[in-house]
């Protein structure tokens, strides 16, 4: 009985849906995290009577055919790149992007990574790095005798040094944006990687060419809404239960057919 296999695809799809939702909920406190959404597609159909087929020599046609689908599958887990809330941290090297764009990070293998997580620190040489020690591009070195660091909305980094009344400019932060930012590959550690679907990065500075502005002393929160995720979770659970009931019903029908004499 096909109903058993059709319902099983529904259960498998909702299982994947629950996994996506659980990952969103698990990352509610992850800086710069972007929630995902499971998207579904129906599977191939078997046609028992095609619409438009002839029913007589007079040219009459079937207005509606008979098609039975094969179930459902998860076609994509698209990432929702909407803006998250911005919260103050009172740390000089914490940065939030308000609008479009990603920070550019130099990866250990020589490639570039992209992130919305603006939690930056200084390493032993004074270089601005991520919490994993990955260097920002271009490299910004903060002198050891810097008493305070100022980062403008357009990414200009300045520092006040001991004995100087005027700030010293240390560099300009770069940002990247993509034609299809949802096509970026998530590689963990709050990092994304360029893919053929995302297109090549467009490098620029904050506040220019469609890039968002920077906020010093702030961090962007995850764009996960707890109420929405719980509603989606309940919906997925009920869909899973209904598919399980279809399997149970199909099993009872098969049992009744097997007992016929």
From TrEMBL:
Q: Name one GO cellular component term.
A: bacterial-type flagellum basal body, distal rod
The keyword Acetylation belongs to this UniProt entry's keyword annotation: no
Record-annotated Flagellar hook protein FlgE/F/G-like D1 domain positions: 96-159
Location in the cell reads:
Bacterial flagellum basal body
Q: Which residues form the Flagellar basal-body/hook protein C-terminal domain?
A: 216-260
Q: Its GO biological process terms?
A: bacterial-type flagellum-dependent swarming motility
From the Swiss-Prot or TrEMBL record, give the protein name.
Flagellar basal-body rod protein FlgG
